[in-house]
Write a structure and sequence with these properties.
Layout lengths: L2 H20 L33 E4 L3 E4 L3 E2 L8 E3 L4 E8 L4 E6 L4 E5 L9 H4 L4 E2 L12 H9 L8 H8 L13 E7 L14 E9 L2 E6 L5
Length: 225
């Protein structure tokens, strides 16, 4: 084969290979760095450590699927509820491992988006706020009465401990240290939001939780769905 045609053939083969590989699932987290437990996530229970593509894990807290698309790093109190302890398998990652596609045991698939921007620290630490290596419910005290119902339905309730709020609602966005902060805020979409177009653009407000020590003393702005 002439040298010119040989070079062209080699380049074409490389381009085809690149095109094929770009459509394949990314699995960089399979070889991601080993990380220690996330100290904040440990408030809820379940061991931390490395989370890999192909591994089976459990929802560390209640999670919300927002807009029918993804579990969001902002930890909404609106959306389809994924209860604490729900089992799932990590299928792939994307966007430098800031997005993790998971498949629930019932066959549903959704992306977990762990965050970005100036306040974002480490995607391998952040994913531990969503996933635990074993079902965290075994060693978790869900309380009773209104508190137990709040955890079951994903609603904050006066009298909850910090760990119980995390279990009910996930980790509050934009709170650097939930273990010491006396005010947490979660975004919520107001009543009737589903009739008003794209979910982020309309009727959004914050639900504010105030703590005294380890207990919630006030819940402001919550609209029951």
């Amino acid at each position: 084969m002439p040298k010119f045609l040989l070079v062209c053939s080699t380049v074409l083969a490389s381009l085809l290979a690149a095109g094929c590989s770009s459509s394949a699932p990314r699995a960089s987290a399979a070889n991601g760095p080993a990380v220690g437990p996330n100290a904040t996530a440990a408030l809820v229970g379940g061991p931390g450590g490395q989370i890999r593509v192909g591994g089976k894990y459990w929802a560390r807290t209640n999670l919300r699927i927002v807009g029918g698309k993804q579990i969001d790093h902002e930890s909404w109190v609106t959306g389809d509820l994924v209860t604490m302890g729900t089992a799932m398998t990590v299928m792939e990652t994307a966007k430098d491992d800031t997005r993790w596609r998971v498949k629930f045991d019932d066959g549903r698939e959704v992306w977990i988006f762990v965050g970005y921007g100036a306040g974002f620290k480490d995607q391998y630490q952040e994913i531990q706020k969503f996933l635990a290596a074993q079902d965290p419910k075994a060693d978790f005290d869900a309380g009773s009465g209104d508190i137990a119902d709040g955890i079951k339905f994903g609603r904050p309730v006066v009298g909850m401990s910090r760990a119980q709020v995390l279990a009910a609602c996930g980790f509050p966005p934009k709170v650097t240290d939930p273990a010491t902060s006396d005010q947490w805020r979660y975004p919520q979409l107001g009543a009737g939001w589903r009739t008003h177009g794209w979910f982020r653009g309309y009727n959004q407000h914050n639900v504010t939780l105030e703590f005294s020590g380890e207990k919630v003393v006030r819940v402001l702005g919550l609209e029951l769905e």
